[in-house]
Amino acid sequence: MAIGVVSTSGMPREEAYRTVIAQARQLISDEKDLVANLANISSLLKHTFEDYLWIGFYLTSQSDPGELVLGPFQGRPACTRIRFGKGVCGTSASEKRTVIVDDVDKFPGHIVCDSLSRSEIVVPIISGGRVAGVIDVDSGYPANFGETDRKYLEELAEMLTQLF
Ligand code: SME
Known about the structure:
The chain has helices spanning 13-30, 34-48, 87-95, 147-160; strands at residues 52-60, 67-74, 81-83, 99-101, 119-127, 130-139. By secondary structure, the chain is α+β, with helices and mostly antiparallel strands. The chain has a single domain, classed as Beta-Lactamase. The chain has a six-stranded antiparallel sheet with strand order 3-2-1-6-5-4, with helices on both faces. Helix 1 runs antiparallel to helix 2 (34-48) and helix 1 packs parallel to helix 4. The termini are far apart. The relative contact order is 0.19. The chain binds methionine sulfoxide. The site of methionine sulfoxide has 15 residues, from helix 3 and strand 6.
């Protein structure tokens, strides 16, 4: 059950996501550069949700389609490369599905980037049938992600496919 239901602005989480999605849609319609858009969307999410510790993107390597490489993010420095199938990000990428982890310590193979992280959601960005990357969000609270996060982060991932 998600506990951090209030955004920085005091809005309920669902309403805050709707605002972020609308802002992200506007950003993308004005600018086509992938890095610029992902950087601004990371910032939007980080500054909207006070209980999100780390938010960012891992992108499928151009030279190795079995590897994710760190993309734009907000939060502490993170590991730069993750193999498909490894950790929460690599599991999401290889299985092409959203993965929600209530307790990162109980996820076999979880890759620790920030020791303060307690729960995590990873959503794949699937473009033309291939995984172009993933959206990764960490929280310092356990079990802080649920169906609202899944719904809106999947909507965001779908919107981002046009950038690849
Ligand atoms: N915990 C992730 C690694 C990335 S960091 O959380 C930013 C994982 O297990 O894939």
